[in-house]
Amino acid sequence: MKFKTFFWFVAPSVFMMLLFIAAPLVSVFLQSFQITQPVLQQVEVETCTPGFLTQTCTTELKTIPIIDEATGKTLTTTEWVGLQSYRNVLQMDKVWAAIGSANFGDIWQIDFWKALRFTLMFTLITLPLVIGVGLAIALAVNNAAKSLRGPVIFISLLPFIITPVIGSLSIYWLFVGDGILTAALERWTGQDIAMFAQAWTIELLMYFYRVWHVAPFAFVIFYAGLQTVNMDTLESAIIDGASRFERLRYVIVPHLMPLIIFIALIHLMDCYRVFEEIVGFRSQAHVISLQWLTYDFLVPDDAGNRAVSRASASAMLTMIGIVILLILPLRRTWRDHKGGAH
Amino acid sequence: MSKATAQPLSLKVASGAFLAFWCLLAAFPIVWIAVMSFKSPRDAFDANPLNVILGPVTRATGNGLSVPDIILGLAFLFFAIRWAFTGLPRLVERFTPPGLIVVGWLVGAAVYGIVFVILFFGVLPPVFDIINSILGPLGTPVLGLTTEHYVAVWGENEFYRNFMNSMIVTAGVVTISLTVGTLAGYGLARSGSNLAFWLLILALIFRALPHSVLVAGYLPWFINSAEILRPIFGELSPTLYGQPWAVIAVLVSINQPFTIWMLRSFFQNIPAELDEAARVDGCSHFQAFRRVIMPVMWPGVITTGLFSFLLGYNDFLVTSLLLDAQNQTMVPAIAGYFNRETTTTDQVEAVAAAVSITAPLFLLVMVFQRQIVSGLTAGAVKG
Predict the structure, then answer these.
(1) Which of B38, B70, B136 is nearest to B355 (CA)?
(2) Residue A128 is part of a domain; what is its CATH number?
(3) Which of A316, B79, B192, B245 is most deeply buried (CB count within 10 A of its CB)?
(4) Which of B27, B45, B321 faces A179 most closely, judged by CB atoms?
(5) How is chain B split into domains, by residue range?
């Protein structure tokens, strides 16, 4: 295919990606060094209250935003503030104070570090669980009678396809207040349980939700992979006296290895932007994630202002994280490409 | 299967039990919220599961089904679903002009859905009342069931507006991202150049970006777009914030990396000899694409379209930040229920709204299970 034809085929797609993905990235990068504020002016205001004989008048200085006469909007200025927004997000002074006084727990009180800890733990804990559960379901389905497989796949796809916010809400409703599962747990342990009153129980439910949501995806892919396992290799393993577990460990898992890496990669990307769970479980008071932090800065506060520069700073920090996570797999792809795989 | 690979009974039982447990786990939360949505608030959040299922409080307020009602209702459901797979396809095929089969199906499905809702929620309840009054003791209700929350959600709270917005956004996302994506996917599949490789890698990096990063980039521009664009478009320049079509453009772009990867792997499965033959016969690349490739690419396009649909339909972050309250889609709108969640009635209404959002997805899996599975595996094997 000539370059010109190729260009016209991919142009619309590339144009959209440049306009709506690359350009916003540049914009976020610049915004993170700027701060946009309303222009304030100090006005002397005299307020009088009726009093006996004479009015009581007080004058005071008030700070109010200047309003543009023509458009009726508040005037704003944009200043370059360097790393100020990053400092506001990272709050390194508090971190150093916490380290200096050896109160490491205090670090997790700061929003950004709290979010970072949760996001990383969430990603790393759910990853092996998703792969393990997905593989277990795939093996079990492969074992089941042919007529059962269709319905089982249908049921398994439901958690995968459900809207993430709704999925986490559906689990939230099972446990909220004296929901049936909380009541069952209380009867079982004999204790009064409130699942949404402390961070660690919420986190457990979130891990559970994510595994429930993603395991079907891993299952379907592993199941497809299992159909192509080389039967001859399996049989020779049996002749060599390999036990069932050894066959799984040395024949099936190596065969599925590319798929495991694929799932791990996708899971890293998706888990790193954990967000819907926070909304569904309404856990913002206890557990937050990096993407939720940016979202929270972007939502207008009571006065209708959005903290765009702080959001940009936290977005840039989030990006740095995903770049670090992806460097290794990407380097491998590049080496494969160099090696002439294409 | 040979004797050596035969499994001991214990293993078979264990694997079967595990599978049954998984199916229960997978379906339970979804089935349970569906049950909850039909009960009065006290029943829905009762600590005793039996009370949630049977709904004594709901029954006491006069909303209940007797045994004949249940049998009749189930029979109606059974025939309705069966007809959807037998009668409906025949009708659709008879009444659609050739070449518009997709449109015919969309119209057919919509009409079927409307008629179903009218019959099930409008006609059946009065019929049940008559039956129960005739039957006497047999007609005493045993199962509490009420549709009042659905009526409240769709009627009073005007959820249909959110539904329409969701439909506009998803339809836009699916059509545009498929149009743009098939062209790019075809180009990438047929070009072995280094540039194509780097484009794909770039797309992979874009796929990894958290969406909030991008939205932080859009927001200031979208809010002030009227002033920024004024020098170019004059008085017609729009404020992009709150515009569904702006959100469609954003979601299409976010979805592009995934779309082109997936379509590329589908196009690679179509033998290149096919379009080479067309080229020999004197077609240009575009003609070859339109006349030779387009007729055979539908399975891949349908699968990719399904995933685009899911992205547009399930999105919370982008739509909640870039659309305002007037044209909010369904998923962010449900978050509105938490904020004013003062009574338990509101909570059950939120449950009913959640079930309403899930129902179309349920139908989607039922109809397109095969395509979803093939899409998932195609991405893995090639990607």
Answers:
(1) B38
(2) 1.10.3720.10
(3) A316
(4) B45
(5) 65-140, 159-382
**Whole-number Å distance between alpha carbons of A143 and A151:** 14
Global pTM reads 0.86
Q: Looking at chain B, which residue has its C-alpha nearest residue A156?
A: B26
> What is the mean pLDDT for each group of 10 consecutive residues in chain A (342 residues)?
84 90 89 79 79 78 74 73 82 84 80 90 92 93 85 90 91 84 85 83 92 92 87 86 86 88 87 89 86 88 78 89 81 70 43
Q: Is B284 helix (H, G, I), strand (E, B) or coil?
A: coil
Put simply, the chain B residues between 90 and 129 with a CB less than 8 A from any chain A CB are: none
CA dihedral angle for residue B250, residue B255, residue B261, residue B263, rounded to 10 degrees: -100
- Can you tell me whether residue B50 is helix, strand or coil? helix
Report chain B residues whose CB lies below 8 A from the CB of A311. 212, 216
Window 60-99 of A, Cβ < 8 Å to B: none
Question: Which ranges constitute the DSSP H helices of B191-243?
Answer: 194-208, 211-223, 225-233
Contact assessment for residue A287 and residue A122, using Cβ atoms and an 8 Å cutoff: no
Residue A88 lies in a domain: no
**Three-state SS at A41:** strand
Give the distance from residue A57's alpha carbon to the nearest chain B alpha carbon, in angstroms. 42
B188 interfaces chain A, CB cutoff of 8 Å: yes
Decide: A313 and B207 in contact? Cβ < 8 Å.
Answer: no
Query: Reduced to 3 states, what is the DSSP secondary structure of residue B129?
Result: helix
Q: What is the pLDDT of residues B330-373, one digit of tens each?
A: 888 887 776 665 677 788 888 889 998 998 888 888 888 887 88
Q: Which fold has domain B159-382?
A: MetI-like fold (1.10.3720)
Distance from C-alpha of A220 to C-alpha of A208, rounded to nearest angstrom: 19
d(CA B261, CA B200): 7
> Measuring CA to CA, which residue among B230, B243, B267 is closest to residue B324?
B243
Non-local CB neighbours of B322 within 8 Å, separated by 6+ positions: B215, B218, B219, B222, B241, B242, B246, B247, B250
Report CA-CA distances (Å) from A172 to A258, B12, B27, B154, B283. Answer: 35, 34, 15, 23, 58
Quick check: is A144 in a domain? Answer: yes
Which residues are within 8 A (CB) of B209 and not within 5 positions of it... i.e. 6 or more apart?
A21, A25, A319, A322
- Cβ-Cβ contacts under 8 Å, A164 against chain B: 314, 316
Residue in A closest to B258 by C-alpha: A266
- Could you tell me the two tokens for B38? 């039909």
The beta-carbon neighbor of A153 closest among B190, B206, B373 is B373
Closest CB to B376: pick one of A177, A221, A306: A221
CA-closest candidate to residue A265, choices A335, A182, A197, A332: A332
- Residue A185 forms part of a structural domain: yes
Hey, which residues 18-37 in chain B have their CB within 8 Å of chain A? 18-19, 22-23, 25-27, 29-30, 32-33, 36
A209 touches chain B (CB under 8 A): no
Contact B52 A163 (CB under 8 A): no
Please list, in sequence order, all residues whose beta carbon lies within 8 angstroms of the beta carbon of residue B311, skipping any fewer than 6 positions away: B173, B251, B254, B255, B258
Closest partner residue to B36 among A22, A173, A221, by Cβ?
Answer: A173
What is the count of structural domains for chain A?
A: 1
Identify which of A23, A162, A169 has the shortest CB distance to residue B361: A162
